[in-house]
Write a structure and sequence with these properties.
Blueprint (H helix, E strand, L loop, with lengths): L3 E4 L5 H10 L4 E4 L3 H4 L8 E2 L3 H6 L3 E4 L4 H9 L4 H4 L5 E4 L5 H11 L5 E4 L2 E2 L2 H5 L3 E6 L2 H11 L3 E8 L3 H29 L4 H10 L5 H8 L5 H5 L1 H18 L6 H15 L5
Parallel strand pairs: 1-2, 1-4, 2-3, 4-5, 5-6, 8-9
Antiparallel strand pairs: 7-8
Length: about 280
């Protein structure tokens, strides 16, 4: 099996890494905080002192950090992944970042003989633990197929969308549409309130009818508590901005202005202070 390095052991990354080692892949992990690696003490995973050491022990290095700057830091710092990964290695970007950042990283990796695959994910830590995460992959077909057995340790389906950056574009579109749907769900339940209908009953109707969405289901499952979505607002803001930047750059025939307005309304709602 390929030797795997994994950086980014948060609520999403830790279950992914756990599935990788449980499938029998030789795994090396690194984290800025020692506490993040402690849950792997009962596995065969090796804890590296630096990203470079992790890379030297790996054939494929997976990054599940937060933002573009985090990805570039762990790759290019003096003791970063590029300092330790041998020619023939692959860097997999599970973080949701701008496609242009992926292409810039690939340009730096190519002279080193290193391939880059973008493979953002959707579904959350519980889906990863249950092997039901969605992986949206972009990159050379051979590189994606090489990584597929690793992805299948925690994901189903794994979808190859095209060249490098395609996975990031799909993830941005997915989260943009989700943000719009959150706003529509909030308006829907407010309309139900105005009509004197019971929210919980309406949620059951939507869950079994043609008008339901994943966003409406998430709101209902939370008891209509926006706390979790408010915590995710900065990530949704980032992904909406990526999608709108891609629209401006590519100038598609479709005009997303109405959807963009709905997304902005959702983000504004999530920025409001919850009632005391």
């Amino acid at each position: 099996m390929e030797r795997i390095g994994f950086i980014g052991l948060g609520s999403q990354g830790a279950p992914m890494a756990r599935r990788i080692v449980d499938e029998g892949h030789p795994l090396t992990v690194w984290a800025r905080r020692a506490a993040s690696t402690e849950p792997f003490a009962d596995t065969g995973a090796v804890v590296a002192a630096t990203p470079a050491e992790l890379a030297s022990r790996s054939d494929i290095v997976c990054l599940c950090v937060v933002a573009d700057a985090d990805v570039e830091d762990v790759l290019t710092r003096a003791d970063g992944v590029f300092a330790g990964l041998a020619s023939g290695g692959v860097v997999v970007v599970h973080a949701t970042i701008h496609p242009d950042t992926c292409r810039r990283i690939a340009a730096e990796a190519a002279p080193r003989g290193i391939a880059v695959v973008d493979a953002p994910v959707s579904g959350g830590g519980q889906a990863a633990a249950a092997r039901r995460l969605l992986v949206m992959a972009g990159g050379d077909k051979a590189d994606v197929e090489r990584c597929r057995p690793v992805f299948e340790a925690f994901a189903d389906p794994v979808i190859h969308l095209g060249p490098l950056g395609s996975g990031q574009a799909a993830k941005a579109l997915n989260n943009f549409v989700f943000t719009v749907q959150v706003g529509l769900a909030l308006d829907t339940f407010a309309l139900a309130d105005g009509l004197g209908m019971d929210r919980a009953a309406v949620a059951q109707v939507l869950a079994n009818g043609t008008g339901g969405t994943r966003a409406a289901g998430i709101l209902a499952a939370s008891g209509f508590n926006l706390g979790g979505l408010r915590q995710a607002r900065s990530l949704l803001r980032k992904d909406v901005d990526i999608l709108l930047d891609l629209v401006r750059a590519d100038g598609p025939a479709a005009d997303p202005a109405v959807l963009a307005e709905l997304a902005e309304r959702t983000l504004a709602t999530l920025a409001e202070e919850p009632p005391a």
